[in-house]
Fold each of these.
Amino acid sequence: MACLLLHLAIVKKYLETHPSLEEQSVIKGTIYPDAVTNDVKTHYTEKNRGSDLLSHVRGKVNLYAFLEEHPTLNDFELGWFLHLVTDYLFFCECFTNEYLVSKSYEEFCKELYHAYYCVNLYMEENYNVKKDDFKEYPYEYYPGIPYENCILPKEMVDNFIKRVSSIDLDKYITKIRQVKKNIKP
């Protein structure tokens, strides 16, 4: 899953173009899936997602299952859904199949969590993400370190934020409900 500061950068960009949404509810919903003990349930993780790293990370989120349980979305649930969309696309678009097949789960986690620390400070400095954004879940805030080369290059992160924050979620929800499975927007 993407780090929480990346989720916050995306939701803040999304909120810029959707001023009618209640900002704090959407932000709280965006943080919620990672701030609970049972994140398998909050991510609607598929039970039989395979044992290799590729299928393990790509089966982390089931967007259709979430929408089945939430036929209409309030602002909190919209933030939650945006979190799930971000995680789904993060593993589909930020890592190639070849990369994921070549790594063990332990290697991948080590590289990924190092990248998160780099990205965290970058999000604070470039996307107006602050410790105060975590007021509902203060224990989830992790300060970053100066950016260094890692598996999440800055340009990729910037492009990913721009792409995900500009998704028309209403159209995307309709598309997912039609095909009844995860699908890219």
Amino acid sequence: MSGLVPDGVTLPASRSERATTRFRRLLAERSYVFAPGVYDPMTAELAMYQRFDAIYFSGYSFAVGYLGTTDMDLYGGAEIADGARRTVAALRKFQLTMAVGDPPSGIPGTKLDIPPVLVDMDTGYGNAFNVQRTTELYVNAGVAGFHMEDQVAPKRCGHIAGKALVSADEMVGKLRMARAVADDLGSDVVIMARTDAYSAVDAPERARGMDLAVERALRYIDSGAPDLVWCELPTSAREPTVTFAEEVRKRFPDAMLGFNYSSSFRWDKDPDPISFDELAALGYKFIFITLAAQHAAALGIAHLYRDLQHRGHAAYVDLQRDEWAEKDLPSKSHHFFTGVPYHQLLGEVYGAGRLGRDVREHQTAPEETRV
């Protein structure tokens, strides 16, 4: 029972489970954990409603959604940490509102587990002391995990030319700092180490390409700090994906790998795109699509806006017709999706009379035209 829902409404037992514990269990139980990329609370809630195992809070998506700009370290650690905090909090609230449903409208409650959220930490936003602060912010935000990369700061997207690397020693120090902070806070947060060595143009080592990527990954695993390693690759080609996994697992057979099914690649042009199951067989345990929500939202919005320019009000009427034809789309009623029924029911318990279900605005339109 919870005092945050009306009597008779139950919540999944997972509500009291730590996100880090759930994420680690999923990694152990599943052949792989897939997470769509999100950039704000709403996209995360939609992913949760579709019952994805986990959610990936993309840095590039955050840069686009928060600043309207590219992924070149143009936001700070405190900014994305706050975005992650608001997203985690929204998912906890969303679990409550969906569990209540809308009884007066005949919509039953839906029990949803809160998916663990893994967040982009870029380079840690500076040196080891910046990593210390950022890790504290992330852990206190309630995220299940984060990844950090070995680029210099300011960094750039892994698929933008001109990447340069810090020394492997500096990266290991950052990873160890992150783990030490998490331990100090009593958190078993999942840490993923990313190397951009495969396509970096500047690095302290003589080696380049796959040799350097494997060498870096092995150094990071050997430090004992990260739980997963990830090599950012420049294309969707199979060969580097296979080679990296095989080379790393020669030394660490149980190593867990991350894979960015990157939105920078034209998978639709690849004659034989690698599947999630194939990646899992190679040891890729965490698979994510960085800008999945960003591209989907931009496509849908662009279609609507173009249509509005040409057809005016009819375009929006058609949108609503399509939207309400969907049988299982909670966002078609923005009042339901944002939890108005929940707030009204709980308002009767904790609030003044005007917060309850019996209060209605004077309407000039028929009841059935309001959403």
